[in-house]
Amino acid sequence: MSSYAFIRRDEVLFLLLWSSGYIGAKFGLPHAGTYTLLFLRAVLCVAVAAFIVSIRGDWQRPDISTFITGFLAHFVWLVAILKAFEFGIGAGAAALIAAMQPVLMGFLAPLLLGEKNNWLQWAGIAVGFVGVIIFIGADQRATEAALWVYLLPMLATASLTCITLSERRRAGRPACTMPVFTALFWQGLLTAILLLPLAIFDEGFAATINGELIFAVIWLGIIVSVLAYGQMFRLIRTRNATRVSALQYFVPPVTMIIAWIVFGETLTLNGLMGLGVTSMGFWLIYRGEGQQIPR
To answer: Fewest beta carbons within 10 Å, which of 14, 50, 93, 172?
Structure first.
């Protein structure tokens, strides 16, 4: 397989796992408050990560960067996305707005990481951004959600961009890179500590225990939190930052199709046009990456 394959098997796995998180969240929210659901998910994530780390013997003391990444990845990102769902944004829209990350990364990676983009990559970033704008307009008319609510997934986008930049910088210093599951344990523990008072005092730890909630917690706590996040950090540490960010362009089509099947969310013509444009944006980034000299 070419080192510049359009999309690789581990990237496909990441997309499937990551996209399912949007669906798992909407599955659980009718039965628990946002903070309560995320706290239960964090507790399960910590337990599974602790088991894996113990088996591997990878215990290490955390540093401040580990906790900052955990705060952004497991607290800011997830709270912003789930709150957006509460206020009426569809799963596909949240995923597509989060896909604006390549726009930020395209500007910041050359400045902070020295990863240069050629004209095709810049064109792909611009085209993808246009696709996002098209879709936001289509989804806002379909859901009638207030425009300010769309700032929440944009906040999630900013947090994921900061994570990518930080992890890429740490990847260049192997001595500072903690094993993925060890980092997940400490990050999940921090998240649980932050969420517990919010779940208790803001929501009264409200939860209706049933099969759907149990399924959502297991899915979010293991499939998404451990496997998807673990895969994301592996990709960030081993791939070009612009490419990893651009993978977010593929999350919305997968998420929208699953949301349409599971929840009956509307697929509008303009929304599909937005998806097509963002996919073209990733193709341009891929073509531009193929023209670069391998590092």
So the answer is: 172
Quick: pLDDT tens for 75-88: 998 898 888 877 77
> End-to-end distance of the chain based on CA atoms, in angstroms?
17
pLDDT (0 to 100) of residue 100: 67
Which residues have a Cβ under 8 Å from the Cβ of 34 and sit 6 or more positions away? Answer: 79, 82, 83, 86, 203
3-state SS assignment for residue 259? helix
Residues linked to residue 32 through DSSP beta bridges, in sequence order: 207
What are the backbone angles phi and psi of residue 32, rounded to the nearest 5°? -160, 155
Which residues touch 273 (CB under 8 Å, ≥6 apart)?
Answer: 131, 134, 138
**pTM of the predicted model, to two decimals?**
0.77
Residue 17 near residue 227 (C-beta atoms within 8 A):
yes
Residue 117 CA: distances (Å) to CA of 11, 44, 108, 224: 20, 40, 11, 30
